[in-house]
Amino acid sequence: MSELDGVWKIRRTGGLLPPLHGVRKQIHGTHGKTLLPGGLVGVPFDVVGLELHYGAPFSGFVDRLVPFDGGFLGDATFRRRVFGRFE
């Protein structure tokens, strides 16, 4: 079991991300998916350490996570450049 396993609520804290009301990340082992409001499944991703790597057509997007206060802070990146922050 990974420290990221579970369902996580996401909250935008800055940058070019849209409001993330109702968005969650569901993670199990080395894979996960974004759950959109209403139960819609969004983009799947691979878990590499504390990074979430999105596949085509979103290749190049990586969420980098840092443990914080029982949860995580995250940087949303594209080609290693930060464009948004979330927790």
Helix/strand class: mainly beta
Give the CA-CA distance, first to last residue: 21 Å
- Radius of gyration, taken over Cα atoms and rounded to an integer in Å: 12 Å
Average pLDDT, to the nearest integer? 94
Q: Tell me roughly what share of residues is in helical segments.
A: under 10%
Low-confidence stretches: none
Q: SSE order, as H and E?
A: EEEEEEEEE
Give the biggest sheet.
Answer: 9 strands, antiparallel
What percentage of amino acids are in beta strands? over 45%
Total helical segments: 0
Q: In total, how many beta strands?
A: 9
Shape: globular
Biggest sheet: strand arrangement? 1-3-4-5-6-7-8-9-2
What would a concise description of this structure say?
The chain is an all-beta fold. Helix content is 0%, strand content 60%.
Give the helices and strands, then pairings.
Elements: E1 6-9, E2 12-15, E3 24-28, E4 31-35, E5 41-48, E6 51-54, E7 61-68, E8 71-78, E9 81-86
Antiparallel strand pairs: 1-3, 2-9, 3-4, 4-5, 5-6, 6-7, 7-8, 8-9
Structure in words:
This protein is 0% helix and 60% strand. It is mostly beta strands. Strands 1-3-4-5-6-7-8-9-2 form a 9-stranded antiparallel β-sheet, with no helix packed on it.
